Amino acid sequence: MRNKLAEILVAKGITDKNVLEAIRTIPRHLFMDSSFEGHAYQDKAFPIGADQTISQPYTVAFQSELLEVKPDHKILEIGTGSGYQTAVLLLLRSKVYTIERQSELFKKTKIFFRKMGYRPKKLIFGDGYKGLPGEAPYDGIIVTAGAPEVPKALMSQLKIGGRLVIPVGTDDQIMTLFIRKSEKEFEKKEFGSFRFVPLLENKN
Question: Which of 35, 55, 64, 82 is catalytic?
Fold first, then answer.
């Protein structure tokens, strides 16, 4: 089923071999409530509690591909959620710092990671809007919730040459990539419309 899912993603335009290998390897059904297990390898988002969803595999693969993750890259993830995207980043051999603002999900995912042997560098309960300045700068920052605008804190925590992948917008989001060219200069690219749960500021 995982191989089939990877084939669907290839048909939709995903080309990064390492990302596809991660999709083939990760047991997505374990990240979901057992009532949805039968749907785990469909290319769809599903509820995971606390009004959140496990992202559509295509979206996870698309964002991961845009990040251009290399081994040992330092990656900041905003919105741990079920941990599925975190697992993909870990399989790409990056050092992952991940923040979740929903305490119910944070606790659940923390226990789950321990059980599964997934080891992000840090799993933090907090406000992703602020990023994690203490560990900055990052090679990549990935935001897994729709942001009405791009948090400046995240821009400032990118390395020169670093990449920020963020869905920007309120109802529909435009997947946006920022590449930091210098202290003050960013290159911006847009990649069409996606739907995410909202990124909320100061709400824990």
Answer: 55
